[in-house]
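Objective 1.3, modelling of assemblies. Example input:
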Amino acid sequence: MKLMLFAPELLLLLGSLALFFMTTGKVGGKKARSFTLTLAIANIFLCFACLHNEGMLFFDAYKIDFFSQALKICISLGFAIVLLFSTELKGIKDEVRPEYYLFMLMSTIGLIMMVSSVELLSMFIALELSSYSLYLLVPMREDRAGLRMQMESAIKYIMFGVVATGIMLFGMSYLFGLTGTTYFSELIPAMHGLMGNPAAIVAVVMVLGGFLYKLGVFPLHFWVPDVYQGASNETTAFISSVPKIAAVAMLVRILALVTPEGKSLVTLLMVLSVCSMFYGNLVALVQTDIKRMLGFSGIAHAGYVLLGLITLQDSGYATSLYYITGYLLMNLACFLVICQVAQDGENLAIDDLSGLHQRSPLLALTLAVGMFALAGIPPFVGFMGKFMLLTGALKQGYLLLVILAAINTAISIYYYLSVVRVAYCNSPEQRPEVVVGGITKSVSLALVVIIIALGIAPNQIIQIATDVVRTIQ
Amino acid sequence: MDFLIMNSMDFSILSTVMFLPLAGALVLLFIPGDTAAKNWALLVTIVTALVSLPLYWNFDITTAQFQFGEHISWIPSLNINYTLGIDGITLLLILMTTLLMPLCVLGSWRYIEKRVREFMICLLIMETSMLGVFMALDFVLFYILWEAMLIPMYLLIGVWGGPRKIYASIKFFLYTLAGSVMLLVAIIALYLKTGSFSIPAMMGQEYSSNFQIWVFLAFFLAFAIKVPMFPFHTWLPAAHVEAPTAGSVILASVLLKMGTYGFLRFCLPITPEATLTFVPYILWLSVAGILYGGFTALAQQDMKKLIAYSSVGHMGFVTLGIFVLNTQGVEGAILQMINHGVTTGALFLCVGMIYERTHSRELSKAAGLGTYMPIYVTFLAFFSLSSLAFPGTNSFVGEFLILAGGFADYKVIAACAIPGAILAAAYMFRMLQRMVWGGTQNPDQSKMVDLNMREIVILAPLLFFVFWIGLSPAPFMDVMHASVSHLLSQVGVVSGDGLSVAQLMIP
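Predicted structure (tokens):
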């Protein structure tokens, strides 16, 4: 049954078609949201149903295996969580809300297709599908202040994005030139033989660049703080979490081209990792806008993720995937709070969270758990992930790198803690109570529970991640 | 698993003791009302204390192995296990923790007025993680609990603390966390050498000197900040002063002990060679802490600060005792850890009781209480005497053993620590004199009510232990002999009868 292999994508595609017809009429944002949400949740179940499918599609350019199917679940989950807590979509005008959901859906389709593509061009097309939809989401924010901040962000996002894609395409042309194929199944053995060749390393680095951009690794991070600040809260929640999972998955896939012989590549990634960590953490220290702060923290976390990738081993890749999944959850927990606290979808300063534990105890708890988890304090998933990343890297003998990462943990705690401090120790003054809907409550509770559960019982998921990584070797 | 005697009781007692408070905290989420929350927290802590008592009756004092062991595989891919067990070093610390917690709850009965339920939840989570730190025999488990503890403690200080709570809580958190990140790197490095996170398996291995020194330094930074040793002590007065009474008690009685416990459990047996290298430096730092703490305490006007600085001095004695590396010294240090927990905890509770009445911790405002609060000053006097190691009280035994151990091997250093004991008398008597009699210009204390039944119930057990340990320390010393001799043999120090006892008892 070839149709079953493509079922999740097909469902979303048909859904987006329906949503497209809805946007041509006068459908309000509410209807569009409930349609998209139904679709997203149905898609999660479908992804689970298709978890163990295996097969090739589209002239072998599209591979269905455990790797792709498991990641599709993560992406669909992230998509659904964002939809669940962005109930009101406060930052977007009602007329464009159906379109907003349409593009978000398209972007998710792109990501879902990306993790399945095992051929350079289909990978490129999937990436562009998801990227262009995201580029469009950013300027859709309602322009209340008249500063046109969202336009600036969108332009920056698309400009940097196009350049990064250009670099990636250039790298792909090198790969094709060196090996005469665009299929990963043929590229891998061919590239393994070419590891001594500088052109091969350059090609791989350039292809990696496209995804390092998505992940926000130094020096391809310039878009991160501005886009985070300019885009509406819900958009940022999506951009900052879901595409990053796909990006890490693709990095893992591309790094399969490299053998330990390609030392210079490892050194490069190591330098990028250290730069990302230090740059992200140090700049985050002085931020006052919470989304900007989370943006810089995201850069630092991208640096941590690279710690797993540089080991060039299955266990390291598995840890990276585990970590980025954890990051998705912790990040979404923080954004859930931001979206709820922002009354009209405005940007929040950190001080706006003052006294949150009196205004809404549950949100304050969610925020605290999210922040402590991001900081890497046990018993949350952030600690376990970081611990495993450090163990893996030290196993390979990167002592200095591990020490620098540990120092970064100590630096980062300050800004995460200041957010918790503001939420718990400051008085709310005149700030109003935050009313939280029932669904959002259960989502935030679920996030807290999952963040703790993944932290204390990581064994299962690590096992799954290892199996996932093994399937692509 | 040759280091572990598995639990032979009907139920897994260590897990029960450890997780009862956490379970209580979860139930507390669904209990509405402040009074109900207090009663429930009291009930949970008392039950935990009662359940923990059989540990003492069933403890086998003839062996240095870890007892009541539990061992479950946790994360097999990294060989991380859920291993619990206690030996003579931790038994008393665990009992002290479980027995102190009901008193902490009682001590917060009136002190905490807002968000009582959340406060009690934090206390109970604290108890679980503190007990877990002492019981854990797996380094990852230990580290998780060691770090996780910071969150409830941070909230205790940051939410329910005094006027400078934000500064104090952030400083506490940052200091302790920054100290422990290198501990994590050291743990991973040790894991890669031994292939296991089991703490006993890491002991007695042949590590290179260089490796030992780096690991020791990483350990030392984490534990010295927790103790806190001079010059890492600056977070302590801030945190103590701003924390609510229960927070101060937990901080002084249990949290500080984790630092010294870390020295005993990790530094000495895992990196013995590096320990011997660093002994002189640490001893001098201890002496510096003793004298510095004493002199600073002498100058304080704030009662909590006074006791906080006295803690720096007392913990200096403990580290001194640990690093003289002979039987008397180490046993004295362990006993002194318990003593400090009892005495300083009691003193903080005493200060808290005054604070509840006057909302001030100023020594001058609490002058001349003797006439109006006779019961209170009686308690205070005994605890102060205990704090300055008056013969007949608990601290005398501990401090005497430490100094005896010190004079046996390091005469000059021990002689330098003696003025610390005199300073302790000076600052404690200064406080006592002011509070009981005061001067000619005492504030009007006639409105002060003496202790009520609840407060007497809080202090009486502590006073009981002050005299019990002071007059008959044998039941407390007996449990630690075997473990201490084993520990010293691991460090490779031959000390009088210590080694022979170890040889007799460990086949």
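Chain B has 22 helices and three strands.
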